[in-house]
Amino acid sequence: MIVGGGTGVRMPTAATPARTAARSVDPRLERIRTAWDPALLDRATSIAIERLGHHLRSTRVAGVALERPSDLLAEAGALMGPGDPEPDLERLVRIVDLHLRTAIALPSTGSLARQFTSVLPVAGAVDLLTAMAPQPATFYEAGQLPNVADKLIGADLGALVGWAPGTFTMVSTSGGALANLTAILAARNLRDPGAWSDGLQARGPQARRLAIAVGEDAHYSVTRVAGITGLGEATIVLLPVDTQRRIDIRRARAALDAAAAAGLDVFCIVASAGSTPTGAIDPLTELAALAHERGAWFHVDGAHAGSFIVSHALRPRLAGIELADSFCLDAHKTLFVPAACTLLFYRDPDAADAAFSQAASYVFDDPADEMTAFESGGRNFECTKRPSILPLWVAWSLHGRAIFADRLDHLVARTAEVAALIDAQPDFVLVTAPDANIVCFEHLPGARSDADLAALQVAIRDRLRAEGRFLISKVDLGERSVLRLVVMHHEVGTETILALMDEIRRVARSIGEEAA
Ligand SMILES: Cc1ncc(COP(=O)(O)O)c(C=O)c1O
Prior knowledge:
The chain is of the alpha/beta class and about 525 residues long. The protein has 16 helices and 13 strands.
């Protein structure tokens, strides 16, 4: 031990004598050893894997078995305690069953509501590996392979954007919301280098207020950034969308002119590819030109469809993404790996350093050495971060790009068929032609007021969800509430949608009868 002597000189104290006294067995240590016995992993995972196998192989059409929160609270509460270092694995069986019973039935074609799907089995296996051999991915020393995997995946996918090797960078984050925050922070700090240290107040009352411009259908994580960063949600410049719910360039230009006239300094324009409500992909080439003409950063929130870069057939839908200053894609949505795994790309690698700037001697070495220069810690919000890049990297390495492209091509083609089928029905209205694998529509059984029609769609969603066979979602588009399908399962086909439409007609009839 080293102690200060008051002289400015540090002296070692005498070494502590080795503790060699014999000890009786410490019961606490025994309990700890029992709970950490690796044999428990074998027993617990066999229980989980056996039950998961049934769940994944089930051919039942199902959505979700939705329980009332108070009932589930009681049921789950009854499964708690008394605890034991040698756990009661019978109780684990019941907990696994409860989870699978109440989970959205992702392996089923009845699950049509959400932007996630059952994951690639090899990716799931690697996720377990990373849970049991946890290596926080932010710092090289603690996450060597994750940091290397970041570089390899970044290089492969960035090349698909069309960027030359070594000219760009990728930072992985735990989710699209964090990626959007990180990219917009980088843009803000580049526009106002004093903002990080001195705050926005230091700009003074005469300075133009910094603002973000986003499409009307942008994800809430984008507009949330304005609140988090102190820009204020009221400063958000909403860019109007056209009838296909893509940003309308002509009206966007007018909205930006009006914002400038009102004293706002729009430092970042955010496009969606595709948007959460409808999957619409904004006109990226035109928006990139508009952003750069106005001196603004161009960020593409590609959480949903940014992964289309892996497919030759779908890449043209993202034309212009190569012009983005930054863009993200959620691998846990459309590259089918466990959540949360998001890739945030920067066209200029140095820009990635602009998001955060801090000294923390316990993790950051100054000057950086070969290893700390390699890691992502300084470019990432998170400190402890799951190495969720590893399941993606392993699946990408073992299966190759083609399996991802095949599934995306297939899902998007099926979605187009689904949309055509819906469009062909006299009592269904297709809202937009899908750009991705999301379809929005209304069921219109006879003439009704707009308000009745909106209420009916929500009631249909609720009724179907309660019955448990199909889980679909609803979204508000302006004044309309519409039904929404996300085609994430490769077995969804014409039969699924015909059966769904029959169910929708049936529940709409009974809702009408009950109201009459
Ligand atoms: C377009 C879009 N952006 C961002 C997000 C947020 O991503 P995450 O849930 O990975 O944080 C979502 C999630 O659905 C999304 O659809």
